Amino acid sequence: MTMKTGMIAGSLAAVLLLLPLPVRADGTPSVLVRTVMPRQGSVPDVVTAYGTAGPSVDGNVTLSVAAEGQVTVLAARPGEAVQAGEKLIDFALSAQAVSTYHQAVAAARTARQARTHTADLFQQQLATRDQVEQADKAVFDAEARLNALQHETGDRNTVTLKAPFDGIVSAVPIAQGDRTPPGAPLVSLIRADGLVVTVGIEPSDRTRVHNGNPVRLNPLTGTAGAIDGRILRVDNMINAKSRLVDADISLPPGTLPGETFRAVITVGRSAGWLIPRDAVLADDKGAYLLQVAGDKAVRVEVRPLGTDGDIAAVTGAIDPQRPVVVEGNYQLSDGTAVRQEKPL
Asked: Which of 21, 104, 168, 326 is the 20 to 30 A CA-CA neighbour of 280?
């Protein structure tokens, strides 16, 4: 804007301020307003929070092999969707791991033979009951060790790790060809139905939010529409990093890990006077609205309770017989003369 244009605009604004208000038939200046009659009702009482989609407490599983060896085939990639039973990794057991298994087989066989021999001696009164019990314990320990190894690797030289459920590969901390120690994490999966949105709730709202509260989730990225969920869990402690209280919200299948959401949690309903949101104004004294008494505007102090779209719920000394100004109210003050259009 040039200096000349700015001077013209300022002059026009000054002229408009000096223009008289429209007048009524009797010559009294007045403001034309549109009004609506107040009515009683309620709007949802909500708590708003923000969060990110991620695995639930039991929605993330890390697979490993309880033996040392080498990753020979790596079929899993981070972010990849997999189905139950799909191969993720081929893992070749080390020579030492294979030897350990065969040693466990031999140890179990030897323990069983020793137990049989001890039992025969006991029948001949050449062994004590304590010796029989010790032989029984040796068999139990050897077979427990063998069963554990059979569960993990069996007598195979290669172990194939498969997806235990439909899900998403969340992490692969190894590379093909890596040699790993026993129990090292090899691949992590998120259940396809195990995603939740973890949001942070203000500590002052903690007692208002409960399991089962309905939630409207609005994605903060992309063009996807809002989705519905429910509160699954609310912590009873403050997150040390965010200084908020964490809460988990259910998600439908198909949501992507890492998506961010604005969560509107309905915790109840607020009852009061229902009026259009534009009818509520605020100044240094607080929130207020204007009603029409005869042909004058009357200021009424109110306290907002909540909103539902374009409708607000408020409390205050509202006269149910007087219309509320919804258009033209910015030009009014207490006692300003008004002319009404037909109430809405």
From this structure: 21
The CATH code of domain 64-92+159-190 reads: 2.40.50.100
Kindly state which CATH superfamily the domain 47-57+192-269 is placed in: Efflux pump adaptor protein, beta barrel domain (2.40.30.170)
Tens-digit pLDDT profile for residues 269-307: 989 999 999 999 999 999 999 999 988 999 999 999 988
Residue type, 184: A
Q: What's the fold here for domain 25-42+271-340? A: 2.40.420
Q: Structure pTM? A: 0.61
